User: Fold this.
Amino acid sequence: MDRYLSRTVFGADFAGAKTLTGSYSLKNASEIGFKEDWLQTAIAENVELVLGPCREGNFIPQDEEWRFWKREVAIKEAGGISIDVLLVSEFGRLGIIETKLFHNPEARRAVVVQAIEYAIHLSISDLPNETPRTAEGQPFVELDDVRDKIQEPLIIIAGDQLDPRAVKLSKCRAR
Assistant:
């Protein structure tokens, strides 16, 4: 059974469209040639792609502001494995984003363990020296706030389609 997590997957502009009937079908990333790099770039440019479903599921507050911080953040203690996309909230909470496309066998197995391993081994020394900046050039969040929240990450596995068994894990969140 295929399951998609968010009710909002894409947007469309129908201006000038003659007919819509039979014009659309649901495709996964492999079927249309997308690579994980495309998904990582899309998340970096619009963090709400992954945060919107988290807000909808009450995993984060509706009004908490988040920013993209960096891609491919190497974790030294874990042998240099890299977090695909790193986000940070206005309160210093980190968002660890692991991207997997469904045709990748890890999407069905090791991806959950991989994301948890990132959270376990991530240390303040692995993070960039500066946090993202506001439009006015000020730090979006202080590194001390990140240091205080480093053990409370938001872990997100983002993909074009996820195994329903992995989706069940999202219901088992700690409070």
Notes: The first helix runs from residue 29 to 32. The chain has a mean pLDDT of 79. Residues 29-169 form one domain. The CA atoms of residues 96 and 155 lie 5 Å apart.
